[in-house]
């Protein structure tokens, strides 16, 4: 039980406050000294490390190069050419301009999707379908005076109203536009963001940070019931590397930079971060921080939480940042851990210091075939046990292996498949692998040439113990290349009645096989029960290994011909699948972020809450309004009203936090992390209340435990 | 889907049941030898590779769970792990099945011969077989046959072999092991043996549960066991034992398999081989220890006609769907799965409910023969009238009336079509001629002589007690047939009795009494825990539907034409009601301070014998030790009797006040039922 209203705890409170002051001291920016602000001001436009505008991948008007209702670049997509063969257009990717002969048959055989049954998307955005913007005139007026560019063009606004969830893209294809931001602003540096946030607070405007827009957790959706003006804060123009520190191997970067630019620019200086989520072409540094992203090569470089040294975030209360750039600290809970994963609900991440590494001398792909998935998992487990995982190791199940096979392009040396000719014969006939059971692991090694070769040997020796056969570099490379084009494939599917999506989980080792089997089976069963007319594609792969478990990706797609509300069916099945994941000891998400919004039923939300709570208590931090909650965006908007500089504190020991977290009322609240069980207090009450507004514990005996965590920050 | 079959009791009349096919017919027309040697290629679960029994053993022994327990035991006892391992492997050796196709073929041949001499027909619902075949391919399967005879599991395997289905691995009681040769034969036909009690032996439990789970997890074979735990000597379904059900559901709950299919199987015998054997056992003539020689003595049975057997494979039940919303499987992710953990409350109550539902599913698909109705009428008649017997046409009329009633109540009655009722009656009577006597057109139970039981002696040489016991053998044998129909009537009968006992029309009062009776009798009959309201509603629904009562907001009133039904139903429960009362009386009047559980049965039996001989009790059925045990269990459950621990280990402490008032309430003598109901 915890509440500042309870008299008996005043002693504890006093101690807590004291502690709070100490911690706050570490974090607090000197009240009237701006020198702590990043070394580079906006005016430093011409600095050497700045990516020149030609190099910028992401223009302000994104729709000029990217699809407004699909994945990626407008010029790149899968199409069926005149001969009825699948082809990938454009020039950007290795696969570009190539014919993929097997794809059509695979689509037909897997989904029953034929060329005759087409579901083309609405080709162009019909601006009249877009609601007129609700503009907050005063806000706009003052914004103008800051000279920060903004727009209320329908196209700009629609583009920022969504991430890449199936339902979001499906609706766009149908030309259905829901609530969209009323305004888009493009700050170009930290101080721009400060100005915007301040104005938003002042004029009661709701802000939604927008990075690369690759969110798959509905985090960018505008709450339809939001009545205030919604402003999308597009960070894409904050994309400079501000400095590189070669002595400490760190780089200080603006949060809007997208993955491909970051790597490219660092490479020019001989460095890399090694952080490569599959969405790295488009997702941004700030987005990674906000979603706790995970990169493919985390085995060498770590996940985002391992990479981050320093974060600067603008909140309604002011700027949060640590006062040093140290590798580790033991001064209370780490503020970074409540910023990471907050999905834009607490503030705008503007600058980040990341670890960097020299570009590796040597890279080598590889692949291994296993007679079955069980053996493959056993091998990955052993590799993890011996802690010799390569930069990346991924295990595809049989269906995915076949899928990869179907994506093999016509003629190309790097695309020859081991299943061709003699090799196929060798594996299936001589080794007795069942083509309907075998599965493939793809590998990526990185480092010194010699060490890589040694490492490779070690891994292949382990693989051999589990019946694995080396299947060549090409297969490995092709596997990784496909991760970049696979997102494009969904658009092709949607042209032909096929909808699908992936979701992921993390799970202890002893559960991996069970979860894979059960979730796949559940998907199939649910589809049948929900009236899906065609057998679904239900497949998985193990994409990351840890000491204590693994990350598993599920892909699920089906032909929706004959269904009146396919998205609803899809969501119900996905919901069931997630329920199955939880029942089998998996987490709700390894890296995509908490799936939110209407598509999870009450019950799932409850489970989700419980699930995330355990994550949270593990983090041992509870901070005010630290709620990556479904649609806590509006709360963010409210929060923006408070103006006092942030003082972070820790008024009570974590035990109190725990007691609060466990109350059932909170579990039911639907907030994954529960600092507030109920709706936040009304904005008016906050701003007119005692000074610090939002972060101030509400006066009076409010809902007991629920507020104990809210009260973590005390004036 | 499947789950609904178990849970739907809406309208028993609408129940559609499959048709039967006689599998002996083909055996009578073709070579048994060829049949025994024919090609046997059952479909398996998802192409699981069949597993040799030795491989299975080593797989089970290597399981983490066993390692864990071995380590624990060795730590606690100070024995080396090797020693404990050896013990584990010895346990497994003693337990494991050793299925061999050759033995199965031998049985296929021998049983064909035996079955053909014993039975007119063995009828199986083929649709059920098809469903089973489908289920076996999709998920690991658990077969749950009812248990009325030693025959049961041989019969099951015989049927599965006949239909080319995967042979089950069967949990059997250790008592078979007494019969050296037979025990081994059974082992080779797929039985594995469990000690009857292994109380706190953790190692035994671990080995045994891991053995079963290994089979389930890999889907090597259907696992078969008897939910009732033991053969029912009374033909009533026994309250389910949960141990094995817990074990087989575990792999699903822990996510080790996607689903498990449970198939309740109802085996109904027109005449039970062990008929009088059971009756004598219930009366305290000690059960002959299963020995091979005793079995050979049973050869006498071979010369008799045992009518037909009906085997109904029920709707497969998906454990996943019945667990949906009942069990939060997340709970199993917080502790490594190989560490044995007592199931928590929601799991326990889930398994308990499931077990009851499954036993009910068995009951519902039990085929009832005309004789079951005859036995019910004859028993009631025998208890009611002093005049010996009942006229044949009166009997026929009553049976026809009862046929109609039971059909309306949804009984699965097998009444021969197109045969005149009188013929049906007389052929039933002749099949059971050991139990009934017909003289001068009057039918009565064959009470006077002890022909069926034991050697024929001069009647005069019997003491009154012995004579009574001999009569009781016949009554109990007969009762075991009536009991087959109990599940059809028990709920309406409880309401009828409640109306009678509470002698009121007030619905609430009747419900209270019903609730009380249901509670008292929940060791006696299969009454799903927590389903009081449903049961009451179901009972009222049936009573109203057949026009026996009218139910209004406030009242339940017997109609004119309902008198007969209500009288019949009340009479049906009467032996139980009186039996429980007399047990209560015994505890109040005779029970000494030092009464132990062990001595309870002999003492209560002696007491009841006296009461009957003194004319204070009419119902001979009260002599059944089954009834006495159930009554005691109920009293223990209700706290009217307590079992002492410590020094007075095993003694029973009787709360005379409570027992007394329970007796009064049962007899309808206590006006304020509410008080006692509240106390319970
Ligand atoms: C094809 C595909 C592949 C993917 N693969 C991976 C993968 O391998 N690993 C992985 O981890 N994820 C993956 N994702 C998910 C997604 O790319 C990540 O969640 C990514 O981190 C989101 O970054 P973004 O810049 O696109 O953020 P957005 O989608 O723009 O925003 C995501 C959330 O972060 C908030 N946010 C964005 N920028 C800021 C900021 N500067 N300050 C505060 N809040 C901000 C937004 O408000 C929003 O709530 C994938 C997604 C797709 C579509």
UniProtKB/TrEMBL annotation, chain A:
The active site is at 553 (proton donor/acceptor). The keyword Transferase applies. GO terms for cellular component: peroxisome. It is found in: Peroxisome. Its main location: other. It comes from the Eukaryota. Residues 25-57, 675-707 are annotated as: Disordered. This is Alkylglycerone-phosphate synthase. The gene is agps.
UniProtKB/TrEMBL annotation, chain B:
GO terms for cellular component: mitochondrial membrane; peroxisomal membrane. Pathway: Phospholipid metabolism. It is found in: Membrane. SUPFAM superfamilies: Glycerol-3-phosphate (1)-acyltransferase (SSF69593). InterPro entries: GPAT/DHAPAT, GPAT/DHAPAT_C, GPAT/DHAPAT_LPLAT, Plipid/glycerol_acylTrfase. Coiled coil: none annotated. One of its GO terms (biological process) is ether lipid biosynthetic process. Residues 141-270 form the Phospholipid/glycerol acyltransferase domain. Keywords: Acyltransferase, Membrane, Transferase. GO terms for molecular function: glycerol-3-phosphate O-acyltransferase activity; glycerone-phosphate O-acyltransferase activity. PANTHER family: DIHYDROXYACETONE PHOSPHATE ACYLTRANSFERASE (PTHR12563:SF20), GLYCEROL-3-PHOSPHATE ACYLTRANSFERASE (PTHR12563). Belongs to the GPAT/DAPAT family. This is Dihydroxyacetone phosphate acyltransferase.
């Amino acid at each position: 039980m915890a509440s500042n209203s309870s008299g008996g705890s005043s002693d504890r409170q006093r101690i807590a406050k004291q502690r709070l002051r100490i911690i706050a001291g570490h974090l607090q920016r000197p009240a009237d000294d701006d020198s702590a602000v990043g070394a580079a001001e906006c005016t430093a436009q011409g600095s050497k490390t700045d990516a020149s505008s030609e190099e910028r991948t992401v223009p302000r008007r994104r729709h000029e190069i990217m699809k407004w209702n699909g994945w990626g670049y407008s010029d790149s997509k899968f199409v069926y050419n005149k001969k009825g063969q699948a082809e990938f257009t454009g020039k950007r990717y290795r696969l570009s301009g190539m014919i993929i002969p097997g794809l059509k048959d695979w689509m037909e055989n897997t989904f029953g999707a034929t060329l005759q049954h087409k579901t083309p998307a609405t080709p162009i955005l019909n601006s009249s379908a877009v609601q007129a913007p609700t503009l907050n005139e005063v806000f706009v007026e003052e914004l103008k005076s800051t000279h920060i560019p903004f727009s209320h063009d329908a196209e700009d606004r629609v583009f920022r109203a969504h991430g890449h969830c199936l339902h979001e893209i499906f609706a766009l294809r149908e030309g259905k536009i829901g609530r969209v931001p009323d305004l888009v602003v493009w700050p170009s540096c930290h101080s721009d963001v400060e100005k915007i946030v301040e104005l938003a607070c002042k004029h009661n405007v709701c802000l939604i940070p927008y990075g690369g827009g690759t969110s798959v957790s509905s985090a960018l959706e505008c709450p339809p019931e939001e009545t205030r003006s919604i402003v999308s804060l597009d960070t894409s123009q904050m994309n400079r590397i501000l400095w590189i520190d070669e002595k400490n191997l760190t780089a200080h970067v603006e949060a809007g930079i997208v993955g491909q630019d970051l790597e490219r620019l660092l490479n020019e200086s001989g460095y890399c971060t090694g952080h490569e989520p599959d969405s790295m072409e488009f997702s941004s540094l700030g987005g990674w921080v906000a979603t706790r992203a995970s990169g493919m090569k985390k085995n060498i470089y770590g996940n985002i939480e391992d990479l981050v040294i320093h974060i600067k975030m603008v909140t309604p209360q002011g700027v949060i940042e640590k006062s040093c750039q140290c590798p580790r600290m033991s001064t209370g809970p780490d503020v970074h851990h409540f910023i990471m994963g907050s999905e834009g609900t607490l503030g705008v991440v503007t600058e980040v210091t990341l670890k960097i590494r020299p570009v590796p001398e040597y890279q080598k792909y590889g692949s291994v075939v296993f007679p079955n998935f069980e053996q493959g998992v056993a091998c990955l487990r052993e590799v993890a046990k011996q802690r010799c995982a390569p930069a990346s190791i991924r295990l595809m199940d049989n269906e995915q292996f076949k899928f990869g096979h179907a994506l093999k392009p016509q003629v190309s040396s790097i695309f020859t498949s081991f299943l061709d000719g003699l090799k196929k014969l060798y594996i299936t006939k001589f080794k007795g692998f069942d083509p309907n059971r075998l599965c493939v692991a793809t590998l990526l090694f990185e480092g010194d040439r010699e060490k890589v070769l040694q490492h490779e040997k070690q891994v292949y020796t382990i693989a051999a113990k589990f019946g694995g056969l080396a299947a060549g570099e090409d297969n490995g490379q092709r596997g990784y290349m496909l991760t970049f084009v696979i997102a494009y494939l969904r658009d092709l599917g949607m042209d032909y009645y096929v909808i699908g999506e992936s979701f992921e989980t993390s799970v202890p080792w002893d559960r991996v096989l069970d979860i894979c089997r059960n979730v796949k089976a559940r998907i199939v069963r649910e589809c049948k029960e929900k009236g899906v007319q065609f057998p679904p594609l239900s497949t998985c792969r193990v994409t990351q290994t840890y000491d204590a478990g693994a990350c598993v990706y599920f892909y699920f797609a089906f032909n929706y011909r004959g269904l009146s509300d396919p998205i609803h069916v899809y969501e119900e099945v996905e919901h069931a699948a997630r329920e199955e994941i939880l029942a089998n000891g998996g987490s709700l998400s390894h890296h995509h972020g908490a799936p939110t919004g209407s598509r999870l039923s009450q019950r799932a939300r409850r489970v989700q809450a419980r699930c995330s709570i355990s994550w949270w208590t593990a983090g041992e931090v509870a901070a005010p309004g630290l709620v990556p909650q479904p649609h806590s965006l509006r709360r963010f908007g409210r929060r923006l009203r408070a103006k006092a500089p942030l003082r972070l504190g820790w008024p009570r020991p974590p035990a109190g936090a725990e007691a609060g977290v466990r109350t059932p009322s909170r579990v039911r609240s639907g907030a994954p992390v529960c600092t507030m069980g109920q709706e936040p207090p009304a904005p008016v009450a906050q701003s007119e209340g005692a000074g610090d507004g939002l972060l101030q514990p509400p006066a009076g005996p409010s809902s007991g435990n629920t507020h104990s965590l809210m009260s973590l920050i005390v004036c | 889907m499947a789950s609904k079959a178990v849970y739907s009791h809406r309208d028993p009349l609408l129940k559609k049941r499959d048709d039967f096919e006689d599998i002996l017919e083909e055996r009578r027309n073709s070579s048994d030898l060829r049949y025994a040697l024919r090609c046997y290629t059952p479909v398996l679960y998802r192409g699981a590779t069949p597993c040799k029994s030795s491989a299975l053993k080593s797989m089970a022994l290597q399981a983490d769970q066993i390692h864990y327990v071995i380590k624990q035991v060795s730590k606690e006892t100070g024995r080396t792990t090797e020693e404990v391992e050896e013990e584990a492997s010895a346990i497994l050796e003693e337990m494991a099945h050793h299925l061999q196709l050759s033995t199965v073929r031998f049985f296929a041949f021998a049983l064909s011969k035996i079955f053909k001499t014993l039975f007119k027909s063995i009828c199986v619902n083929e649709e059920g077989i098809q469903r089973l075949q489908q289920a076996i391919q999709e998920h690991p399967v658990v077969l749950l046959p009812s248990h009325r005879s030693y025959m049961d599991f041989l019969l099951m395997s015989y049927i599965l072999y006949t239909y080319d289905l995967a042979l089950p691995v069967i949990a059997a009681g250790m008592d078979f092991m007494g019969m050296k040769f037979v025990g081994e034969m059974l082992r080779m036909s797929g039985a594995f043996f469990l000690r009857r009690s292994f109380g706190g032996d953790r190692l035994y439990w671990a080995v045994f549960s891991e053995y079963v789970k290994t089979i389930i997890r890999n889907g090597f074979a259907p696992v078969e066991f008897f939910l009732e735990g033991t053969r029912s000597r009374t033909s009533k379904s026994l309250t389910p034992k949960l141990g094995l059900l817990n074990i087989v559901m575990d792999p699903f709950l822990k996510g080790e398999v996607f689903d498990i299919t449970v198939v309740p199987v109802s085996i109904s015998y027109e005449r039970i081989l062990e008929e009088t054997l059971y009756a004598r056992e219930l009366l305290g003539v000690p059960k002959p220890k299963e020995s091979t020689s005793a079995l050979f003595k049973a050869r006498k049975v071979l010369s008799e006609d045992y009518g037909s057997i009906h085997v109904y494979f029920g709707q497969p039940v998906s454990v996943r769907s019945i667990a949906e919303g009942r069990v939060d499987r997340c709970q199993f992710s917080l502790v490594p799965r190989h560490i044995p953990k007592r199931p928590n409350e929601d799991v326990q109550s889930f398994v308990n409910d499931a077990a009851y539902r499954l036993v009910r599913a068995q009951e519902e698909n039990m085929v009832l023969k005309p004789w079951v109705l005859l036995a019910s009428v004859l028993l009631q008649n025998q208890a009611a009238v002093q005049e010996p017997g009942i006229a044949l046409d009166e009997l026929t009329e009553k049976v026809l009336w009862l046929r109609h009633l039971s059909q309306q109540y949804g009984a699965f009655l097998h009444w021969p079509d197109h045969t005149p009722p009188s013929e049906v009656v007389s052929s039933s009577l002749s099949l059971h001629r050991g139990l009934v006597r017909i003289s001068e057109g009057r039918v009565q139970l064959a009470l006077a002589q002890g022909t069926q039981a034991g050697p024929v002696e001069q009647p005069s040489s019997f003491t009154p007690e012995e004579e009574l016991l001999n009569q009781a053998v016949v009554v109990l044998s007969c009762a075991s047939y009536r009991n087959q129909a109990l599940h059809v009537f028990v709920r309406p009968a409880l309401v009828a009795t409640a109306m009678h006992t509470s002698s009121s029309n007030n619905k609430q009062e009747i419900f209270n009494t019903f609730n009380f009776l249901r509670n008292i009798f929940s060791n006696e009959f299969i009454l799903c825990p927590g389903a009081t309201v449903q049961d009451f509603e179901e009972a009222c629904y049936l009573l109203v539907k057949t026009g026996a009562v009218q139910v209004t907001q406030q009242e339940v009133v017997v109609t004119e034409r309902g008198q007969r039904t209500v009288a019949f139903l009340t009479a049906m429960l009467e032996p139980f009601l009186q039996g429980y009362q007399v047990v209560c009386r015994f505890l109040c009047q005779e029970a000494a301070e030092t009464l132990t559980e062990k001595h309870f049965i002999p003492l209560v039996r002696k007491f009841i014998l006296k009461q009957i001989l003194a004319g204070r009790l009419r119902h001979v059925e009260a002599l059944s030790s089954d009834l006495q045990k159930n009554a005691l269990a109920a009293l223990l459950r209700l706290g009217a009797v307590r079992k002492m621990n410590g020094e007075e280990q095993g003694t029973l402490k009787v709360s005379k006040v409570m027992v007394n008032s329970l007796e009064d309430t049962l007899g309808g003598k206590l006006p304020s039922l509410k008080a006692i109901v509240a106390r319970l």
